[in-house]
Design brief:
The complex is a heterodimer of chains A (428) and B (282). With 428 residues, chain A is mostly helical. Chain A is 47% helix and 0% strand. Chain A is built from 23 helices and no strands. Chain A starts with a helix and ends in an 18-residue tail after the last helix. Chain B has one domain (7-281): Fumarate Reductase Cytochrome B subunit, CATH 1.20.950. Chain B has a three-stranded antiparallel beta sheet with strand order 2-1-3. Classes of the chains: A mainly alpha (428), B mainly alpha (282). Chains A and B meet through helix 20 and helix 23 of A and helix 1, helix 2, helix 3, helix 5 and helix 7 of B.
């Protein structure tokens, strides 16, 4: 948008040389304001551009900004020649001549190429404003934390703009990112609690160097996600780094089925962040663990723990209650919550009387795994045989009985009769 | 006059007593507690079924469902020990101790029961007449021992899971895994058997449809005995004992609560077996 304003401004300024040739030369702020702070003079000169506002720059607007000490030509060097504006070809504001790092970052961002070719992507002024440039810490600034989601949402919640950049599968996700953000814990903390240290768009996606997640340098690339979240959640990052998952992420290890180690957003989807006590969330996390830990996932739901979780009640143990949320380690690691000597303490979180006998319970016992759980296998086989035999015998018994009664009725015999000797006499 | 709906009230002849007040009360307790146990147990066992979560929610969640389950379990233990007590008492106070373990009034399977099973299959195929049953048919004996074994097995495993930390003082924890399998599978056997085989044998088969109230009212007409328990009836006629068994027709109140309990239990049972079958095939 900012680039658009600048380019349109240039087009309009191109009309200006039609002014009288006897006009004075002007080089400083004072000279610029002779015309640009004079609304009466400017009337009609930029009629095509939302009235005269683009050319109308009041003193107060400039003096209130971070750029109050700069002169007009610091940002508009093309007009250093004064009036009439002879060279009007370059009016783009070279912010990067001062803001070098930000300029360089922006130039590499996903926004830059599109903005340069006249697309909808933002340039510096889109977010920071043109003349009334305020510090991000100023509550009036569009880049103040409380205002950022609204600023980004100006484009990212706009179906028309998003529709030109995102294909069908990603379009809805891209368009809903900002509205969904407002419903996440981050968004609620920001908007409802007014907590400016909560995360908003730029905390995860970056401000100037905004890159797509498949880019290796992107703050939201899988490899970098833990660092990004860890900028605020430093304690969790330290725990995660020492966990099996953190180690696997660093080594790049993959499961036999090709899964890489989980990162923050796999369990805490960035734009659907809900409270950990919400059934939607804990059910989703258990499923997420099960995406790799398939066997444990299946056997978990055969236990009371899993059945209650499956029904949407959070009162029984879920993966993280035994394995911890971020410090999970294999049972062979003495630091693991499920290391044999730590089991009593782990189970005692819910079962205060738990003892060494109690923790011989198999939370993932699998009756179909004869090698590992022979006793469960034989129990299961006995019960299954019992059920199959009883239902087979009485199923056949019942169906044959029904058949005999139906035949007798069809042939007009007494119900307890039979073809050879119809009647009520029987044998004892 | 229109024929009564319940098979035990149809036909000719005077009313005769079949079950006493203790047996009728125990069976009513079995029905109420069993339905309560199944209703609160199946949402866990079939937690993956689409109906499970709404049912559990309707029951007030695992906390209140678990409470109802335990209350019904307590009723179950209650009637189980009441029955054991009664059998023991009879054992010490009857002159004919042998009749408890042998003969027509015993629940213990006899050679005749095996002959009756074979006879029934011969009859199914039109190869002979239907066997005549005495006071208890082999199916009724099976029902009795199924409940006896079921209460012991499901009740025992249920107690383990009810008080795990207590039992872990002297039993290894993997018994809870065994108990979970046994409890769920034996319960599935019980509910599957009661809600299909027992319902068909006793209430729904042609000739008895739609309901047999003899276990609720304790009595049925003579014609009912001639059909269902001919050997017992003939012996009673022979030994002139019909007088002593004669009973009043059930009062309107008895008939009404018997119909309510009978049809109510049938309806809940059919509802539950439909849910379970849906979960098993999906």
């Amino acid at each position: 948008m900012g680039a658009l304003v600048a380019l349109l401004g240039a087009a309009i300024l191109g009309l200006v040389p039609a002014a009288p040739a006897s006009a004075q030369r002007a080089t400083g702020v004072v000279e610029c304001r002779n015309c640009h702070a004079n609304r009466d003079f400017l009337v009609g000169k930029a009629a095509t551009l939302k009235g005269d506002s683009a050319l109308y720059i009041t003193d107060s607007l400039l003096h209130d900004s971070k750029h109050a000490t700069l002169s007009c030509t610091s940002c508009h060097p093309a007009f250093a020649g004064g009036y009439p504006h002879r060279d009007t070809s370059v009016v783009a504001v070279p912010c990067q001549s001062c803001h070098e790092k930000e300029g360089a970052d922006y130039a590499r961002s996903v926004h830059a190429p599109d903005a340069a070719t006249g697309g909808s992507a933002p340039s510096c002024v889109t977010c920071h404003g043109a003349h009334h440039v305020l510090a991000a810490a100023d509550p009036r600034s569009p880049t103040y934390p409380l205002n950022v989601a609204g600023l980004c949402g100006g484009c990212h919640a706009n179906a028309k703009i998003i529709g030109t950049y995102f294909g069908a599968p990603d379009q809805a996700q891209a368009r809903n990112a900002v509205p969904q953000y407002y419903k996440t814990v981050h968004g609620i903390a920001m908007t409802k609690a007014g907590l400016v240290v909560s995360a908003t768009c730029n905390d995860c996606h970056g401000s100037h160097l905004i890159l797509l997640p498949d880019s290796a340098q992107s703050t939201i690339n899988r490899v970098n996600i833990a660092r990004t979240c860890g900028r605020c959640h430093a304690g969790v990052l330290a725990t995660f780094d020492s966990s099996s998952h953190g180690q696997a992420l660093r080594s790049g290890a993959r499961t036999p089925t090709g899964h890489s180690a989980p990162v923050c957003i796999d369990c805490h989807p960035a734009h659907q962040l809900v409270s950990a006590s919400d059934p939607v969330w804990f059910r989703g996390v258990v499923k997420e663990c099960g995406a790799c830990h398939e066997e444990e996932y299946g056997t978990y739901f055969e236990t009371y723990h899993g059945q209650v979780t499956e029904l949407g009640f959070g009162i029984t143990a879920k993966c993280s209650d035994c394995h911890t949320a971020h410090a999970m380690l294999p049972a062979t690691d003495p630091k693991s919550s499920v290391y044999p000597t730590n089991l009593v303490a782990t189970c005692a979180q819910c079962h205060p009387q738990a003892n060494a006998n109690f923790v011989k319970y198999q939370p993932h016992g699998d009756p179909r795994n004869r090698a590992r759980y022979p006793l469960l296998f034989w129990t299961w086989l006995f019960m299954t045989t019992l059920l199959v035999s009883v239902f087979a015998f009485f199923g056949v018994h019942t169906l044959l009985w029904l058949g005999r009664l139906t035949l007798n009725r069809l042939h007009g015999r007494p119900l307890n009769g039979h073809p050879e000797r119809p009647g009520k006499e029987g044998q004892s | 006059m229109k024929s009564p709906m319940a098979v035990s009230d149809r036909g000719q002849g005077p009313y005769l007593r079949r079950f006493g007040p203790v047996e009728r009360t125990i069976h009513a307790l079995v029905i109420v507690s069993f339905l309560g146990l199944v209703l609160t147990g199946v949402p866990l066992r079939f937690a993956y079924a689409p109906w499970a979560a709404p049912l559990m929610k309707a029951l007030g969640g695992p906390g209140s469902a678990g409470f109802v389950h335990r209350v019904c379990a307590a009723i179950t233990f209650g009637y189980f020990f009441l029955h054991l007590l009664r059998v023991t008492w009879t054992l010490f106070h009857t002159d004919d101790k042998k009749s408890i373990v042998w003969g027509p009034n015993s629940m213990v399977p006899q050679p005749k029961d095996l002959r009756d099973v074979i006879g029934m299959f011969r009859w199914f195929f039109g190869r002979g007449p239907q066997p005549k049953f005495d006071r208890f048919s082999y199916m009724e004996k099976f029902d009795y021992w199924a409940v006896f074994w079921g209460v012991a097995i499901i009740g025992g495993s249920g107690l383990l899971l009810w008080f795990p930390t207590f039992f872990a003082r002297f039993l290894p924890g993997w018994l809870f895994n065994v108990a979970t399998i046994v409890h769920g599978d034996e319960a599935l056997l019980a509910l599957g058997f009661i809600f299909t085989i027992h319902f068909f044998n006793v209430h729904l088969r042609p000739g008895k449809f739609p309901v047999d109230l003899v276990i609720f009212t304790g009595r049925a007409r003579a014609e009912y005995f001639e059909e269902e328990h001919p050997l017992e009836y003939e012996r009673n006629v022979r030994e002139g004992r019909l007088e002593g068994l004669a009973a009043e027709a059930p009062s309107r109140a008895t008939y009404l609560w018997s119909m309510t309990l009978g049809f109510g239990a049938l309806a809940v049972g059919v509802f539950l077996i439909v849910l379970v079958l849906y979960a098993l095939v999906s």
